[in-house]
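Hallway conversation turned thread

IA: we were arguing at lunch whether anyone had actually written out Adenosine kinase end to end. Turns out nobody had. So, for the record, here is the sequence (345 residues) and right after it the structure tokens. Reply here if something looks off.
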Amino acid sequence: MTSTLQEGILVGCGNPLLDISAVVPLNFLQKYSMNEDDAILAEDRHMPIYGELVEDYQAEFLAGGSVQNSLRIAQWILRQPRVAVFFGCVGEDRYAGILKEKAQAAGLDVHYQVKKDVPTGTCAVLITGTHRSLCANLAAANNFTIDHLEEPSNKALVDNAQYYYISGFFLTVNPPSIMQVAATAHAKQRPFLMNLSAPFISQFYMAPLLAALPYVDIIFGNEAEAQAFAEAQQWPSGDLREIGKRLVAMEKKNPARPRIAILTQGCDPVLLIQQDSVQEFPVTKLAVHEIVDTNGAGDAFVGGFLSQFVQGKSLDVCIRCGNYAAGHIIKNPGCTYSGEPEFVE
């Protein structure tokens, strides 16, 4: 058991989505012009996916949305409820009820903005072997507005937090909210963490990403996301260490706290890139039969990291806990966990 932490010490903003997850054949991806390990926003042509998964495949409904996933995992490891607060937008429907129930069961303190006329967002999780492809229909999640953060009770939660985490995915929804949280973190000299989230963020949302980046103390990403960022910046994109060094060196509002980049690369070592060093943290390789699906592994890594970071633990402990959490999640469907956490410093 960890020592007691301040309630609401960690605030996250993101897209609360209900994952509709199923094992599908490769030709299902081809039918919808998708590739293995894609992470995309749904277009009109993708809309039939959700009904098809429920009707024709053994679909599971799992609480999803990248930031909400990370915070649920952090809560699981911390074993103390209401350490983390989550903001996002849902509809007024059954799916919102499922999401809230799953989040609260994990100990997460959710403060959803509710839009009555729009359905709760969903994410199709298409599992092909050890790959997972994501197609998100943001729906209500796309309607988050900054006035929700400005309500006095919510503003107090943001002001009260000591740590802030927002996904790159949220850049597609409401950049002003991100900038407001970033400015709060900066004014209070508190860590602001972000995630590159998916290659399409760097490809299509670079302007709001670059606006937020000077505030970012720790940036997370995987190899595909880092390479997409490098390509969009017209950097050489072959060497992950070099990309990380350049990310760390980009403009920063608070130079007294140099930026840190943490880049994951599947079963290859995690890279911790700081101003003057690059460290590697090995990942325990799983046997193929142990892998249920890789959906949520990146979210779980961040959740494990955050669970230690909010306790003031060293970066190496944070990363080792991230690797522990990702390894656990891969052995379970979606971003779900089983049993008690067994991370040992």
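OS: looked through it. The chain has 13 helices and 14 strands.
IA: good, adding that to the notes. The two ends are 12 Å apart (CA to CA).
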